[in-house]
Each structure stands twice: as C-alpha cells, then as structure tokens.
Amino acid sequence: MEPMIDQIGGEAKVMDLVTQFYDLIETLPQGQAIVTLHLQGHGLAHVRPAQFDFLCGFFGGRRYYAEQHGHMNLREIHAHVAIRAEDAENWLTVMDMALVDTKVADPMKGQIMATFRRAAMMLVNTV
Prior knowledge:
Shape: globular
CATH topology: Globin-like
Helix content: 55-70%
Number of domains: 1
CATH superfamily: Globins
Number of helices: 8
Number of strands: 0
CATH class: Mainly Alpha
Radius of gyration: 14 Å
Structural class: mainly alpha
C-alpha cells in the first residue's frame, strides 16, 4: 500500500499544509493561545520546519524529526507546555481548515483528522 504521504501529494503537499496551518494559527483567533504556548516553549522560529519534519514521518515518509531528535514521541515533544482541551480543539479546528485549504481530499482528510484528534487529546495535560 502506498504511504499516506504519497497519497496526499508528497513532501510538497506537507510543506503547503504546514505553511497554511501556521499562517492560519498566526492570524485566526483560534490560534492565539497556540501562539502563546509556542512563545512559552521554544518560540515560533522552529515550529514550521519542526512540524514539516514531524509530519513527513507521521505520514509515512522520511522521518526527518526522528533523525534529528532520536524520537517522535508527541508527549515528550510537548511536555514543557500546559495544554488544555480547548487548545487541542483549537489546533484541530485550524488543522481541519488547513487540510481543506490545501485540498486534501476525503476520505484521506477524514483519516488524518481522526488520527490527529486522538493525538491532540492525548496531549491534554491541564484543566
């Protein structure tokens, strides 16, 4: 079976998705708290390349993030920030918009969002 990254359009599509996602995060009200979380952590400069590196591996392509950091453990990656259920929902809302904007088609979009939902809710670590 073809890896998901190839099904959605390869690394170029992942780059488009990351760019659109963070453009939305930095401009929409749903992104404000997420920007604040990044500023409390490692800042904004690293997030776009790190997200691209992570998502390539997440979608079954080259595991750039693991090559650089030795793992792809989401809880470990986000352990330094307090994440509320509201933050996870906002992230999911904006990612859904970015998937639509970059024309990731159903049923692939639905599969991606279901997986992202499980991952985002697993990261909730504060009330």
